[in-house]
Specification:
heterodimer, A: 510 residues, mainly alpha, Transcription Elongation Factor S-II, Chain A, 3 domains, four-stranded antiparallel β-sheet, 24 helices, 4 strands, 59% helix, B: DNA primase, PRIM domain, 2 domains, 47% helix, iron (chain A), iron-sulfur (chain A)
Chain lengths: 510, 427
């Protein structure tokens, strides 16, 4: 799997001397920190114009792409949650900091090259998986543009302007004569109408169709097919350039992708990446986290209590069904059983739990023969002894679609809107049937953003501010994450109360 | 034997067949869509949709050549047909293509203005009817849109086409217009669209951002200057929109609701119902003028609101959805409107005020003109038969106008091609 790195891995040894000279010159122009950025990545921002031609390991190929994918799907989820602009931007900033950080050239003690290489490789890998359908392309471009915009806005002012210079976008500057000729019109399009502001502002002239957003909102003066864009709205131009170049490049990649048949190693990875984005999953693999372990073992007796307080809607639905009918169909058992394993129900407790739930409807004999095996199987104690992980939202949404008698699946995806709102309002007293929150949720469902709807339910049932999600605006991507976070929140409350009691006691002591 | 066409319904199948065989201007029509002499993708990958008798609708037709198009048109004999975009492949091959492989690519930028959108502000006709008087609204709209599209957006090749009953279409054939994607079309329409809101919304002009008294965008300002005259002529004098109680209540409801100003006006107008719209507009101007001295803020608000009134009553009411998407189908020029039998002829935007929908030739009239001409020719033995039959009918000036437009489009597209060639030679 691992291929030893070759000299291509050392970015400074570019094989193209002309390129090297040019890049060096450019860098000396800024007077950048000599210990800082390398020649391959002189800026934090990147238009991703030339593909990286370095050797990478398969593992890097996948992990870099996944970290970027997380960020992109997080951005997409945020954009669908109608949050205030500032909140969206700050949570994007926070999220990228943990998953795909890029430091500015002035940062110390950071391996800038490594960060930027990660960023670049991730981008190019995702291009491969997202170029295939117009829908995927559009979503990829939208998220990438949002990411770029966030970085552009948070970038150091000097670095940003030298980056812009390096792009050599040929925007025509409106000269003083022309500016005075259209003074009246230009002023009408400005927010600040003072003469002083007009004098200090400068305009670019670009074909109107390159800045559709500014045209649509009537923010620019238009004459003879040219839009007069003030310096202050420059970001629109940059984003437009970024988006249109990316769109073109993706179409080109799509055309050439069939010729990439050399590789059986990359194909599955690329396929997988695209499909996890489609189901809106930021981090689909669930590993029983420390928090779950810290919360200790769940016993069969405890399940009912945990279910009422901490189960996500899909599991709550299955559990309620099981309690009522004393029976679940195969995929329902599998979905709930693996989930219970994930929250810390050991095998022997699981056997007790299921035996109890089936109750008198089933003889001991039948249970032992037909059901115990399956339970043990899912815990990796039978057959090929695989310890199956709990199903992620992606799997629940896309695999084993429920048939007419089944109750597994995702309520947001597999319930009719009427049934969904009835189910939610009867299960969660915090959500009223006719409330605006319910409308919000149903709207998200209609737009097929199931994870957004689910996250909203989490926020509402846990008294959390809109947009916070599972902490740090992470959206629900795995049923077990819901439960972990929910229990964590409960523990925090308990601890707070305990602390308060302790201090109260101390007061009494004194 | 001349066929007694006049007794037929305006567009019976026989009449339509004769029209497609003898009168439809295939040559300029092909050149207009194709922008070149030899068939290009603009023609061969273009969708045509036919409406046949009994509301049968056939989509995704495409043709290799103009002749093939003609043959099929005569064979199918549609009551009307529409034009779509140039697709990434031939639309007729749709079923053999991979899913999603048929994507709209290029298409003229189109606009559609329909008289029904003016029903709430026209007093002469309603519903499907149209007369020379309410055509005034369309004329005002054409002038404003034509000006904005040419001066602001820099388009040159605008073809205005009467829709056959109570509306008008505009087709823009500039290469820059053909290349616009859906986002860009949408932003252009959003820019131009001023009248928004349904029946339940009285004030339909909200173009000043969040503030009531902000300035208009310079392009709208320019439109407003041009519309002030139209407003007096059309809305106050001709249509007399504020004559009835319903009319002037509508006016009052879209002004700022200052109790004193509105109350005074209402009282005055109720006491004298004979006051004309001109008088009432004068009353309003006077009342607002009175505010200027002691209530500057309110004056400004009313001043801007009166501008908005002018826009609401005269600014083009475009059907935005038609223009936003490349794959929206629009009835072709020189079609026959199935209801009226009138031919969808080009309209000269400079003379749009003089255009009278009632004088547009119907297909029946055109065919009898042909018969008469044939009878005359038979009398004059030996006279040469002309190449195109439409030249003997009143369709002639319209086809000539169309040909002139097409020639200009072709000239530009040839120029562009030559420039591109030059560039590639330089390499």
């Amino acid at each position: 799997m691992f291929r030893p790195s070759t000299r291509h891995n050392i970015p400074s040894s570019s094989t193209n001397p002309a390129l090297e000279v040019k890049v060096n010159k450019r860098q000396s122009g800024i007077g950048a920190n000599p210990a800082g950025p390398s020649t391959r990545y002189p800026y934090r921002l990147n238009f991703y114009e030339t593909p990286p031609t370095l050797d990478i390991t398969l593992e890097e190929f996948e992990t870099f792409a996944i970290s970027r994918l997380r960020v992109l799907s997080q951005i997409e989820a945020l954009s669908h949650r109608s949050l205030p602009y500032a909140q969206v931007q700050s949570s994007i900033t926070n999220y990228t900091k943990t998953h795909l950080n890029l430091s500015s050239n002035t940062a110390r003690n950071v391996n800038l090259d490594e960060e930027r290489r990660r960023d670049e490789i991730g981008h190019w890998v995702l291009r491969l998986s997202f170029c295939r359908s117009p829908d995927l392309r559009a979503r990829f471009v939208r998220s990438e543009v949002a990411l770029f915009k966030n970085r552009f806005e948070t970038d150091d002012v000097n670095e940003r302007s030298s980056f812009l210079k390096s792009l050599q976008l040929d925007w025509q500057v409106v000269d003083e004569n022309e500016k005075m000729r259209y003074e009246k019109e230009l002023k009408l399009c400005m927010w600040e109408k003072k003469d002083e502001a007009f004098k200090n502002e400068s305009w670019f002239k670009v074909p109107w169709h390159t800045v559709p957003d500014l045209v649509g909102s009537r923010k620019v003066y238009i004459r003879a097919g040219m839009a007069y864009v003030p310096q202050s709205l420059q970001i629109s131009l940059v984003l437009q350039a970024f988006a249109s170049r990316l769109e073109k490049a993706l179409e080109l990649t799509a055309k050439n992708l069939p010729r990439l048949d050399e590789d059986d190693r990359l194909g599955p990875v690329i396929d997988h990446l695209a499909s996890s984005f489609l189901s809106g999953v930021a981090s689909s693999d669930y590993q029983s986290s420390d928090s779950a372990a810290a919360q200790g073992v769940v016993t069969a007796e405890m399940v009912d209590d945990v279910a009422r307080k901490h189960f996500p809607p899909c599991m709550r639905n299955l559990y309620d069904r099981l309690k009522r009918d004393h029976h679940l169909k195969h995929f329902g058992r599998l979905q709930l059983g693996l989930f219970l394993k994930g929250i810390g129900l050991p095998l022997d407790e699981a056997v007790v739990f299921w035996r109890r739930m089936y109750g008198a409807t089933m003889s001991d004999d039948k249970f032992n023969k037909e059901y115990k095996y399956n339970i043990r199987h899912s815990y990796g104690q039978e057959g090929k002894r695989t310890n199956y992980p709990p199903k992620s939202c992606q799997q629940i949404l896309t695999q084993n679609q429920p048939g007419t008698q089944d109750s597994h699946g995702c309520p947001f995806r597999h319930f009719s809107p009427d049934n969904l709102s009835a189910f939610l309002s009867s299960t969660y007293p915090q959500i009223d049937r006719g409330s605006s929150e319910m409308r919000d949720i149903l709207d998200s469902v209609k737009a097929t953003h199931y994870h957004v709807a689910c996250t909203r339910v989490f926020e509402l049932t846990h008294g959390i501010k809109k947009g916070e999600g599972l902490g740090g605006s992470e959206s629900v991507a795995h049923p077990n994450k819901w439960t972990d976070r929910s229990r964590e929140l409960e523990r925090e409350v308990v601890e707070r109360i305990k602390k308060k009691e302790d201090s109260d006691e101390m007061m009494i002591d004194q | 034997m001349p066929i007694p066409v006049r007794d037929d319904p305006p567009s019976s199948p026989q009449v339509m067949n004769a029209f497609y065989r003898r009168l439809f201007p295939y040559r300029p029509f092909f050149l207009w869509l194709n922008q070149d002499q030899v068939p290009s993708k603009l023609f061969t990958h273009r969708e045509f949709a036919f409406t046949l008798a009994g509301d049968v609708y056939i989509r995704y037709n495409s043709f290799h050549t103009s002749d093939e198009f003609k043959k099929e048109l005569i064979r199918l004999n549609p009551s009307r047909f529409e034009i779509g975009p140039q697709y990434s492949a031939r639309p007729r091959d749709r079923k053999t293509l991979a899913a999603g492989a048929l994507q709209p690519q290029r298409r003229e930028l189109v606009f559609d203005i329909d008289m029904t959108d003016y029903d709430e502000i026209r007093t002469c006709c309603t519903d499907k009817k149209i007369c020379k008087r309410c055509w005034g609204y369309i004329a005002a709209a054409v002038k404003v849109l034509d000006h904005a599209l040419r001066e602001s957006f820099g388009f040159k090749h605008l073809l205005w086409v009467y829709s056959g009953r109570r509306g008008i279409h505009c087709w823009i054939s500039d290469p820059a217009a053909l290349d616009l994607n859906d986002d860009q079309r949408k932003s252009l329409v959003t820019f131009l669209e001023v009248i928004k809101g349904g029946k339940e919304q009285a004030k339909k002009v909200n173009v000043r951002g969040n503030k009531d008294d902000a300035d208009l965008h310079p392009v709208l300002n320019e439109a407003l200057e041009n519309l002030k005259m139209e407003f007096v002529k059309l809305v106050l004098h001709d249509q007399d929109c504020f004559a009835t109680e319903r009319g002037w209540e509508a006016l009052l409801s879209i002004l700022p609701q200052d109790r004193e100003v509105i109350g005074n006006l209402r009282r005055e107008w109720q006491s004298d119902p004979t006051r004309s719209s001109v008088d009432k507009w004068g009353d309003l101007q006077q009342a607002v003028g009175g505010l200027k001295k002691n209530n500057q803020l309110l004056f400004r608000k009313y001043e801007k609101a009166m501008q908005d009134v002018i826009l609401q009553y005269t600014y083009p009411r475009i059907d935005a959805e038609v223009s936003k998407h490349r794959n929206h189908l629009l009835k072709a020029p020189f079609c026959v409107h199935p209801g009226t039998g009138r031919v969808c002829v080009p309209v000269n935007p400079d003379l749009v005020d003089d255009f009278d929908p009632d004088t547009v030739p119907t297909v029946g009239e055109l065919l009898s003109e042909l018969d008469r001409a044939a009878a005359m020719e038979n009398g004059e033995a030996g006279s040469q038969r002309r190449t195109e039959e439409y030249e003997q009918t009143s369709l002639k000036p319209y086809v000539e106008m169309f040909e002139k437009h097409v020639a200009a489009v072709l000239r530009d597209s040839r120029g562009a091609k030559r420039a591109a060639k030059q560039e590639s030679m330089d390499f």
